[in-house]
Protein backbone atom coordinates (compact mmCIF):
# COMPACT_ATOMS: atom_id res chain seq x y z
CA UNK A 1 0.00 0.00 0.00
CA UNK A 2 1.24 3.47 -0.79
CA UNK A 3 2.14 5.04 2.54
CA UNK A 4 0.44 8.21 1.42
CA UNK A 5 -2.90 6.43 1.49
CA UNK A 6 -4.52 5.22 4.64
CA UNK A 7 -6.50 2.95 2.36
CA UNK A 8 -6.89 2.43 -1.35
CA UNK A 9 -10.66 2.25 -1.06
CA UNK A 10 -11.51 5.36 0.91
CA UNK A 11 -15.03 6.06 2.10
CA UNK A 12 -17.06 9.24 2.17
CA UNK A 13 -16.52 11.12 5.43
CA UNK A 14 -20.21 12.02 5.49
CA UNK A 15 -22.15 8.84 4.60
CA UNK A 16 -19.50 6.14 5.10
CA UNK A 17 -19.99 4.46 1.70
CA UNK A 18 -16.99 4.02 -0.54
CA UNK A 19 -15.87 6.60 -3.01
CA UNK A 20 -16.10 4.09 -5.81
CA UNK A 21 -13.63 3.78 -8.60
CA UNK A 22 -15.87 4.11 -11.56
CA UNK A 23 -14.27 1.64 -13.97
CA UNK A 24 -14.00 -1.41 -11.72
CA UNK A 25 -17.36 -0.71 -10.23
CA UNK A 26 -18.96 -1.02 -13.66
CA UNK A 27 -17.06 -4.19 -14.48
CA UNK A 28 -17.91 -5.74 -11.18
CA UNK A 29 -21.60 -5.10 -11.53
CA UNK A 30 -22.60 -5.56 -15.17
CA UNK A 31 -26.27 -6.02 -14.29
CA UNK A 32 -26.47 -2.93 -12.17
CA UNK A 33 -29.38 -0.70 -12.99
CA UNK A 34 -29.70 1.59 -10.00
CA UNK A 35 -27.93 4.90 -10.44
CA UNK A 36 -24.44 4.76 -9.02
CA UNK A 37 -22.48 7.52 -10.69
CA UNK A 38 -23.07 9.62 -7.59
CA UNK A 39 -20.82 7.26 -5.61
CA UNK A 40 -17.85 8.06 -7.83
CA UNK A 41 -18.32 11.80 -8.02
CA UNK A 42 -16.38 13.30 -5.20
CA UNK A 43 -14.96 16.45 -3.76
CA UNK A 44 -12.20 16.84 -1.23
CA UNK A 45 -11.15 19.45 1.23
CA UNK A 46 -7.53 19.71 2.20
CA UNK A 47 -4.30 21.56 1.57
CA UNK A 48 -1.22 22.19 3.64
CA UNK A 49 -3.23 21.15 6.74
CA UNK A 50 -3.54 24.77 7.90
CA UNK A 51 -5.35 26.42 5.01
CA UNK A 52 -7.68 23.82 3.54
CA UNK A 53 -9.70 24.53 0.43
CA UNK A 54 -12.59 22.84 -1.29
CA UNK A 55 -11.88 21.19 -4.63
CA UNK A 56 -14.20 20.99 -7.61
CA UNK A 57 -16.14 17.81 -8.44
CA UNK A 58 -13.88 14.96 -9.52
CA UNK A 59 -14.40 11.38 -10.63
CA UNK A 60 -12.56 8.52 -8.98
CA UNK A 61 -10.55 6.31 -11.31
CA UNK A 62 -8.06 3.52 -10.62
CA UNK A 63 -5.34 4.95 -8.38
CA UNK A 64 -6.20 8.44 -9.50
CA UNK A 65 -8.33 10.90 -7.63
CA UNK A 66 -8.49 13.76 -10.06
CA UNK A 67 -10.55 16.87 -9.49
CA UNK A 68 -10.47 20.44 -10.75
CA UNK A 69 -8.89 22.87 -8.38
CA UNK A 70 -11.75 25.36 -8.84
CA UNK A 71 -14.62 24.52 -6.45
CA UNK A 72 -17.08 25.74 -9.09
CA UNK A 73 -15.82 23.31 -11.76
CA UNK A 74 -16.64 19.70 -12.56
CA UNK A 75 -14.61 16.95 -14.19
CA UNK A 76 -17.07 16.78 -17.10
CA UNK A 77 -17.13 20.50 -17.88
CA UNK A 78 -16.60 20.66 -21.67
CA UNK A 79 -14.16 23.55 -21.40
CA UNK A 80 -12.19 22.34 -18.41
CA UNK A 81 -8.53 23.29 -18.44
CA UNK A 82 -6.56 20.12 -17.73
CA UNK A 83 -3.81 22.27 -16.24
CA UNK A 84 -6.14 23.03 -13.36
CA UNK A 85 -6.91 19.39 -12.56
CA UNK A 86 -5.07 18.08 -9.52
CA UNK A 87 -4.32 14.72 -7.99
CA UNK A 88 -5.69 14.36 -4.48
CA UNK A 89 -4.17 12.05 -1.90
CA UNK A 90 -7.21 10.97 0.02
CA UNK A 91 -7.15 10.35 3.75
CA UNK A 92 -3.48 10.90 4.27
CA UNK A 93 -2.91 10.91 8.00
CA UNK A 94 0.84 11.36 8.17
CA UNK A 95 1.85 14.96 8.58
CA UNK A 96 5.39 16.14 8.14
CA UNK A 97 7.29 17.80 5.32
CA UNK A 98 6.18 15.31 2.72
CA UNK A 99 2.57 15.95 3.58
CA UNK A 100 2.52 19.70 3.65
CA UNK A 101 2.53 19.92 -0.11
CA UNK A 102 1.67 23.43 -1.24
CA UNK A 103 -1.69 23.57 -2.90
CA UNK A 104 -0.60 25.10 -6.17
CA UNK A 105 2.70 23.35 -6.85
CA UNK A 106 3.84 21.79 -10.09
CA UNK A 107 3.21 18.41 -8.47
CA UNK A 108 -0.46 19.37 -8.37
CA UNK A 109 -1.22 17.02 -5.56
CA UNK A 110 -2.53 17.67 -2.11
CA UNK A 111 -3.87 15.67 0.82
CA UNK A 112 -7.54 15.86 1.57
CA UNK A 113 -10.61 14.22 3.03
CA UNK A 114 -13.07 13.03 0.42
CA UNK A 115 -16.82 12.94 0.22
CA UNK A 116 -19.49 12.30 -2.39
CA UNK A 117 -20.63 15.40 -4.21
CA UNK A 118 -24.23 14.37 -3.41
CA UNK A 119 -23.48 14.22 0.32
CA UNK A 120 -21.64 17.55 0.19
CA UNK A 121 -24.70 19.16 -1.43
CA UNK A 122 -26.82 18.03 1.50
CA UNK A 123 -24.34 19.34 4.07
CA UNK A 124 -24.02 22.64 2.24
CA UNK A 125 -27.79 23.09 2.13
CA UNK A 126 -27.92 22.93 5.90
CA UNK A 127 -25.72 26.00 6.16
CA UNK A 128 -27.13 28.14 3.37
CA UNK A 129 -26.96 31.03 2.91
CA UNK A 130 -23.71 30.95 4.91
CA UNK A 131 -20.68 28.90 3.93
CA UNK A 132 -19.32 25.87 5.72
CA UNK A 133 -16.14 26.53 7.69
CA UNK A 134 -13.80 24.35 5.65
CA UNK A 135 -10.89 24.86 8.04
CA UNK A 136 -12.92 23.72 11.03
CA UNK A 137 -14.25 20.74 9.09
CA UNK A 138 -10.70 19.76 8.18
CA UNK A 139 -9.53 20.18 11.78
CA UNK A 140 -12.32 17.95 13.03
CA UNK A 141 -11.64 15.17 10.54
CA UNK A 142 -7.89 15.07 11.10
CA UNK A 143 -8.58 14.63 14.82
CA UNK A 144 -10.18 11.20 14.37
CA UNK A 145 -8.42 7.96 13.37
CA UNK A 146 -8.97 6.47 9.93
CA UNK A 147 -9.78 2.78 10.05
CA UNK A 148 -10.35 0.71 6.93
CA UNK A 149 -10.82 3.82 4.81
CA UNK A 150 -13.37 5.21 7.26
CA UNK A 151 -13.08 8.02 9.74
CA UNK A 152 -14.10 6.75 13.14
CA UNK A 153 -15.73 9.72 14.80
CA UNK A 154 -17.96 7.89 17.21
CA UNK A 155 -20.72 6.16 15.26
CA UNK A 156 -21.19 3.31 12.78
CA UNK A 157 -22.71 5.49 10.03
CA UNK A 158 -26.25 4.48 10.81
CA UNK A 159 -25.37 0.77 10.66
CA UNK A 160 -23.75 1.01 7.21
CA UNK A 161 -20.43 -0.02 8.76
CA UNK A 162 -19.67 -2.11 11.81
CA UNK A 163 -17.35 -2.31 14.77
CA UNK A 164 -14.63 -4.93 14.91
CA UNK A 165 -15.62 -6.08 18.38
CA UNK A 166 -18.83 -6.46 20.27
CA UNK A 167 -19.03 -3.71 22.88
CA UNK A 168 -19.71 -6.30 25.58
CA UNK A 169 -16.44 -8.12 24.88
CA UNK A 170 -14.13 -5.12 25.16
CA UNK A 171 -11.37 -5.20 27.75
CA UNK A 172 -11.11 -2.19 30.11
CA UNK A 173 -10.07 0.92 28.23
CA UNK A 174 -10.44 -0.69 24.81
CA UNK A 175 -12.12 1.37 22.10
CA UNK A 176 -13.55 -0.70 19.21
CA UNK A 177 -12.17 -0.24 15.70
CA UNK A 178 -14.53 0.53 12.83
CA UNK A 179 -14.58 -1.78 9.79
CA UNK A 180 -15.71 -0.85 6.32
CA UNK A 181 -18.34 -3.09 4.74
CA UNK A 182 -17.86 -3.82 1.05
CA UNK A 183 -20.82 -3.98 -1.31
CA UNK A 184 -21.32 -7.74 -1.03
CA UNK A 185 -21.22 -7.46 2.76
CA UNK A 186 -24.01 -4.88 2.72
CA UNK A 187 -26.31 -7.26 0.86
CA UNK A 188 -28.18 -10.20 2.31
CA UNK A 189 -28.22 -13.44 0.28
CA UNK A 190 -31.50 -12.72 -1.44
CA UNK A 191 -30.72 -9.08 -2.21
CA UNK A 192 -29.07 -7.47 -5.19
CA UNK A 193 -27.86 -3.92 -5.45
CA UNK A 194 -31.16 -2.64 -6.77
CA UNK A 195 -32.90 -3.64 -3.54
CA UNK A 196 -30.62 -1.79 -1.15
CA UNK A 197 -31.44 1.84 -0.57
CA UNK A 198 -27.84 2.77 0.32
CA UNK A 199 -26.91 2.72 -3.34
CA UNK A 200 -29.57 5.09 -4.58
CA UNK A 201 -28.60 8.67 -5.08
CA UNK A 202 -29.74 11.00 -2.32
CA UNK A 203 -29.70 13.87 -4.83
CA UNK A 204 -32.65 12.87 -6.96
CA UNK A 205 -35.97 11.66 -5.55
CA UNK A 206 -38.13 10.31 -8.40
CA UNK A 207 -41.62 11.79 -8.37
CA UNK A 208 -40.70 14.81 -6.29
CA UNK A 209 -40.64 17.25 -9.20
CA UNK A 210 -44.21 16.33 -10.14
CA UNK A 211 -45.38 16.71 -6.55
CA UNK A 212 -43.79 20.12 -6.35
CA UNK A 213 -45.69 21.23 -9.43
CA UNK A 214 -48.96 20.01 -7.92
CA UNK A 215 -48.25 22.13 -4.86
CA UNK A 216 -48.05 25.24 -7.03
CA UNK A 217 -51.87 25.39 -6.67
CA UNK A 218 -54.29 28.32 -6.49
CA UNK A 219 -55.00 29.69 -3.02
CA UNK A 220 -58.84 29.64 -3.08
CA UNK A 221 -59.35 26.29 -1.36
CA UNK A 222 -56.64 27.15 1.15
CA UNK A 223 -58.45 30.33 2.31
CA UNK A 224 -61.64 28.40 2.85
CA UNK A 225 -59.79 25.84 4.98
CA UNK A 226 -58.33 28.53 7.18
CA UNK A 227 -61.67 30.24 7.80
CA UNK A 228 -63.08 26.90 8.99
CA UNK A 229 -60.14 26.56 11.32
CA UNK A 230 -61.25 29.62 13.32
CA UNK A 231 -64.57 28.03 14.30
CA UNK A 232 -63.51 26.60 17.64
CA UNK A 233 -66.42 25.52 19.93
CA UNK A 234 -66.06 27.92 22.88
CA UNK A 235 -68.45 26.02 25.21
CA UNK A 236 -65.99 23.16 25.65
CA UNK A 237 -64.25 22.94 29.02
CA UNK A 238 -60.73 23.02 27.79
CA UNK A 239 -58.12 25.50 29.11
CA UNK A 240 -56.96 26.15 25.55
CA UNK A 241 -60.28 27.90 24.79
CA UNK A 242 -58.79 30.93 26.56
CA UNK A 243 -56.15 31.31 23.90
CA UNK A 244 -56.73 33.02 20.56
CA UNK A 245 -56.40 30.93 17.44
CA UNK A 246 -53.21 32.71 16.46
CA UNK A 247 -51.51 31.54 19.67
CA UNK A 248 -52.85 28.01 19.23
CA UNK A 249 -51.41 27.89 15.75
CA UNK A 250 -48.08 29.17 17.00
CA UNK A 251 -48.01 26.33 19.54
CA UNK A 252 -48.67 23.81 16.78
CA UNK A 253 -45.90 25.24 14.64
CA UNK A 254 -43.34 24.64 17.40
CA UNK A 255 -44.29 21.02 18.07
CA UNK A 256 -43.03 17.87 16.32
CA UNK A 257 -45.77 16.29 14.21
CA UNK A 258 -46.05 13.32 16.54
CA UNK A 259 -46.76 15.64 19.48
CA UNK A 260 -49.34 17.53 17.41
CA UNK A 261 -51.18 14.27 16.96
CA UNK A 262 -51.04 13.60 20.70
CA UNK A 263 -52.30 17.11 21.43
CA UNK A 264 -55.22 16.68 19.08
CA UNK A 265 -56.17 13.49 20.90
CA UNK A 266 -55.91 15.17 24.31
CA UNK A 267 -57.54 18.55 23.63
CA UNK A 268 -60.98 19.24 22.15
CA UNK A 269 -59.83 22.68 21.04
CA UNK A 270 -56.85 21.38 19.11
CA UNK A 271 -58.85 18.48 17.68
CA UNK A 272 -61.17 21.06 16.07
CA UNK A 273 -58.42 23.12 14.52
CA UNK A 274 -57.71 22.42 10.89
CA UNK A 275 -53.99 22.57 10.50
CA UNK A 276 -53.17 25.72 8.52
CA UNK A 277 -50.88 25.90 5.51
CA UNK A 278 -48.24 27.55 7.66
CA UNK A 279 -48.15 24.46 9.82
CA UNK A 280 -47.44 22.19 6.84
CA UNK A 281 -44.84 24.64 5.57
CA UNK A 282 -43.10 24.50 8.96
CA UNK A 283 -42.57 20.75 8.56
CA UNK A 284 -39.96 21.59 5.92
CA UNK A 285 -37.97 23.82 8.30
CA UNK A 286 -34.89 22.89 10.29
CA UNK A 287 -35.73 20.57 13.16
CA UNK A 288 -38.75 18.99 11.47
CA UNK A 289 -39.25 15.79 9.50
CA UNK A 290 -38.88 17.10 5.94
CA UNK A 291 -36.08 19.65 6.27
CA UNK A 292 -33.98 17.40 4.05
CA UNK A 293 -36.38 18.10 1.14
CA UNK A 294 -34.13 20.84 -0.14
CA UNK A 295 -36.35 21.38 -3.14
CA UNK A 296 -39.01 22.85 -0.84
CA UNK A 297 -36.56 25.56 0.19
CA UNK A 298 -35.59 26.22 -3.40
CA UNK A 299 -39.17 26.69 -4.58
CA UNK A 300 -40.48 28.13 -1.32
CA UNK A 301 -42.03 31.21 -2.92
CA UNK A 302 -43.82 29.18 -5.60
CA UNK A 303 -45.43 26.63 -3.30
CA UNK A 304 -48.99 27.58 -2.36
CA UNK A 305 -50.39 24.32 -1.14
CA UNK A 306 -48.03 23.02 1.52
CA UNK A 307 -50.57 20.47 2.72
CA UNK A 308 -50.56 18.68 -0.62
CA UNK A 309 -46.79 18.77 -0.68
CA UNK A 310 -46.56 17.37 2.85
CA UNK A 311 -49.01 14.53 2.26
CA UNK A 312 -47.44 13.47 -1.03
CA UNK A 313 -43.86 13.73 0.18
CA UNK A 314 -44.87 11.43 3.00
CA UNK A 315 -46.00 8.91 0.39
CA UNK A 316 -42.54 9.08 -1.17
CA UNK A 317 -40.78 8.36 2.08
CA UNK A 318 -40.51 4.63 1.45
CA UNK A 319 -38.62 5.01 -1.83
CA UNK A 320 -34.94 4.04 -1.89
CA UNK A 321 -33.66 7.49 -2.83
CA UNK A 322 -35.73 9.14 -0.12
CA UNK A 323 -34.59 6.68 2.55
CA UNK A 324 -30.96 7.18 1.62
CA UNK A 325 -31.33 10.95 1.79
CA UNK A 326 -33.03 10.62 5.19
CA UNK A 327 -30.22 8.53 6.63
CA UNK A 328 -27.43 10.69 5.24
CA UNK A 329 -29.26 13.73 6.57
CA UNK A 330 -29.29 12.18 10.02
CA UNK A 331 -25.52 11.59 9.79
CA UNK A 332 -25.01 15.17 8.70
CA UNK A 333 -26.96 16.40 11.70
CA UNK A 334 -24.45 14.63 13.95
CA UNK A 335 -21.65 16.44 12.17
CA UNK A 336 -23.47 19.74 12.41
CA UNK A 337 -23.65 19.37 16.19
CA UNK A 338 -19.91 18.79 16.27
CA UNK A 339 -19.21 21.74 14.00
CA UNK A 340 -21.40 24.06 16.06
CA UNK A 341 -19.86 22.93 19.31
CA UNK A 342 -16.31 23.26 17.98
CA UNK A 343 -17.04 26.68 16.55
CA UNK A 344 -18.41 28.00 19.83
CA UNK A 345 -15.71 26.56 22.09
CA UNK A 346 -12.23 28.08 21.63
CA UNK A 347 -9.06 26.40 22.82
CA UNK A 348 -7.92 28.33 25.90
CA UNK A 349 -4.60 28.68 27.67
CA UNK A 350 -1.17 30.09 26.75
CA UNK A 351 0.34 28.58 23.60
CA UNK A 352 3.05 25.98 23.88
CA UNK A 353 5.23 24.51 21.15
CA UNK A 354 3.68 21.75 19.03
CA UNK A 355 3.90 20.36 15.49
CA UNK A 356 1.53 22.97 14.09
CA UNK A 357 2.93 25.80 16.21
CA UNK A 358 6.68 25.11 16.06
CA UNK A 359 7.75 28.71 16.57
CA UNK A 360 6.05 29.08 19.94
CA UNK A 361 8.27 28.68 23.06
CA UNK A 362 7.70 25.39 24.83
CA UNK A 363 7.43 27.10 28.21
CA UNK A 364 10.46 25.28 29.62
CA UNK A 365 8.32 23.09 31.82
CA UNK A 366 9.67 19.82 33.15
CA UNK A 367 6.56 17.67 33.31
CA UNK A 368 5.44 14.24 34.22
CA UNK A 369 3.63 13.02 31.13
CA UNK A 370 0.81 10.57 30.54
CA UNK A 371 -1.36 9.82 27.49
CA UNK A 372 -3.51 7.22 25.79
CA UNK A 373 -2.29 5.64 22.56
CA UNK A 374 -0.74 8.89 21.32
CA UNK A 375 0.23 8.96 17.63
CA UNK A 376 2.88 11.41 16.52
CA UNK A 377 2.51 13.66 13.48
CA UNK A 378 4.60 11.33 11.32
CA UNK A 379 2.90 8.14 12.48
CA UNK A 380 -0.06 6.46 10.80
CA UNK A 381 -3.20 7.55 12.61
CA UNK A 382 -5.42 4.50 12.55
CA UNK A 383 -6.12 4.25 16.26
CA UNK A 384 -5.63 6.09 19.52
CA UNK A 385 -5.37 9.86 19.65
CA UNK A 386 -3.43 12.87 18.47
CA UNK A 387 -2.21 15.98 20.23
CA UNK A 388 -2.29 18.60 17.50
CA UNK A 389 -2.05 21.62 19.79
CA UNK A 390 -0.37 22.15 23.15
CA UNK A 391 -1.40 24.60 25.85
CA UNK A 392 0.05 25.18 29.31
CA UNK A 393 -0.81 27.26 32.31
CA UNK A 394 0.84 28.21 35.57
CA UNK A 395 -1.28 27.48 38.60
CA UNK A 396 -1.93 30.01 41.35
CA UNK A 397 -1.00 29.06 44.89
CA UNK A 398 -4.64 28.86 45.86
CA UNK A 399 -7.97 28.53 44.14
CA UNK A 400 -11.56 28.46 45.32
CA UNK A 401 -12.95 25.85 42.89
CA UNK A 402 -11.93 23.54 40.08
CA UNK A 403 -14.40 22.83 37.25
CA UNK A 404 -14.06 20.12 34.61
CA UNK A 405 -15.49 20.19 31.07
CA UNK A 406 -16.35 17.02 29.16
CA UNK A 407 -17.00 16.32 25.50
CA UNK A 408 -20.40 15.21 24.21
CA UNK A 409 -19.04 12.17 22.36
CA UNK A 410 -20.15 8.58 22.97
CA UNK A 411 -17.50 8.13 25.65
CA UNK A 412 -17.36 11.45 27.41
CA UNK A 413 -13.79 12.74 27.69
CA UNK A 414 -12.22 15.54 29.67
CA UNK A 415 -11.66 18.52 27.38
CA UNK A 416 -10.94 21.42 29.74
CA UNK A 417 -10.13 22.58 33.26
CA UNK A 418 -11.16 25.89 34.82
CA UNK A 419 -9.48 27.06 38.01
CA UNK A 420 -11.64 29.64 39.74
CA UNK A 421 -9.69 32.03 41.98
CA UNK A 422 -10.83 33.87 45.10
CA UNK A 423 -11.01 37.16 43.20
CA UNK A 424 -13.38 35.60 40.66
CA UNK A 425 -10.83 35.41 37.85
CA UNK A 426 -10.48 32.14 35.98
CA UNK A 427 -7.46 30.27 34.73
CA UNK A 428 -8.57 28.10 31.82
CA UNK A 429 -6.88 25.22 30.05
CA UNK A 430 -8.44 23.55 27.00
CA UNK A 431 -12.03 23.64 25.77
CA UNK A 432 -14.25 25.10 28.48
CA UNK A 433 -17.92 24.14 28.09
CA UNK A 434 -19.56 26.15 30.85
CA UNK A 435 -23.03 24.92 30.00
CA UNK A 436 -22.10 21.38 30.99
CA UNK A 437 -18.99 21.61 33.19
CA UNK A 438 -18.98 20.00 36.63
CA UNK A 439 -17.22 21.00 39.87
CA UNK A 440 -14.46 18.60 40.91
CA UNK A 441 -13.76 20.42 44.14
CA UNK A 442 -15.04 23.55 45.82
CA UNK A 443 -13.63 25.23 48.90
CA UNK A 444 -10.07 26.29 49.41
CA UNK A 445 -7.58 24.29 47.34
CA UNK A 446 -3.92 25.08 47.97
CA UNK A 447 -1.25 23.81 45.60
CA UNK A 448 1.84 25.13 47.39
CA UNK A 449 3.20 26.58 50.64
CA UNK A 450 1.57 26.53 54.04
CA UNK A 451 -1.70 24.69 54.06
CA UNK A 452 -0.96 22.78 50.84
CA UNK A 453 -3.76 20.27 50.49
CA UNK A 454 -3.50 19.26 46.81
CA UNK A 455 -0.50 17.06 46.05
CA UNK A 456 -1.29 15.67 42.64
CA UNK A 457 -3.86 14.53 40.11
CA UNK A 458 -5.25 11.10 39.35
CA UNK A 459 -6.53 10.33 35.89
CA UNK A 460 -8.51 7.46 34.36
CA UNK A 461 -7.81 6.97 30.66
CA UNK A 462 -8.38 4.77 27.64
CA UNK A 463 -6.58 4.71 24.28
CA UNK A 464 -8.12 8.00 23.20
CA UNK A 465 -8.12 10.33 26.18
CA UNK A 466 -8.91 10.94 29.83
CA UNK A 467 -12.26 9.77 31.07
CA UNK A 468 -12.13 10.85 34.69
CA UNK A 469 -10.13 12.94 37.14
CA UNK A 470 -9.70 13.23 40.90
CA UNK A 471 -7.34 15.20 43.12
CA UNK A 472 -4.75 13.61 45.37
CA UNK A 473 -5.31 15.33 48.69
CA UNK A 474 -3.63 15.18 52.11
CA UNK A 475 -2.63 11.83 53.57
CA UNK A 476 -3.15 9.92 50.30
CA UNK A 477 -6.80 10.83 50.40
CA UNK A 478 -8.54 11.34 47.04
CA UNK A 479 -11.30 13.69 46.11
CA UNK A 480 -14.26 12.08 44.42
CA UNK A 481 -13.81 10.97 40.83
CA UNK A 482 -15.45 13.12 38.19
CA UNK A 483 -16.26 11.35 34.92
CA UNK A 484 -16.45 7.61 34.22
CA UNK A 485 -13.45 5.95 35.87
CA UNK A 486 -14.87 2.44 36.17
CA UNK A 487 -13.17 -0.30 34.19
CA UNK A 488 -10.35 1.78 32.71
CA UNK A 489 -6.68 2.13 33.76
CA UNK A 490 -5.79 4.85 36.26
CA UNK A 491 -2.58 6.74 36.81
CA UNK A 492 -1.32 9.15 39.44
CA UNK A 493 0.50 12.35 38.57
CA UNK A 494 1.97 13.33 41.93
CA UNK A 495 4.36 16.15 42.51
CA UNK A 496 6.70 13.98 44.65
CA UNK A 497 7.47 16.56 47.28
CA UNK A 498 7.37 19.54 44.95
CA UNK A 499 4.29 21.67 44.62
CA UNK A 500 2.11 21.40 41.55
CA UNK A 501 2.91 24.67 39.80
CA UNK A 502 1.86 24.20 36.17
CA UNK A 503 -0.08 21.99 33.78
CA UNK A 504 0.56 21.27 30.12
CA UNK A 505 -1.86 19.37 27.89
CA UNK A 506 -2.29 18.31 24.26
CA UNK A 507 -5.54 18.78 22.31
CA UNK A 508 -7.02 17.90 18.95
CA UNK A 509 -9.45 19.77 16.61
CA UNK A 510 -8.29 23.41 17.06
ZN1 LIG B 1 -21.35 10.08 0.91
Automatic annotation (TrEMBL):
Taxonomic source organism: Aspergillus sclerotialis
Cleavable signal peptide: none
Pfam families for the chain: DUF7600
InterPro entries documented for this protein: DUF7600, F-box-like_dom_sf, F-box_dom
Domain F-box: residue ranges: 237-283
Protein name per UniProt: F-box domain-containing protein
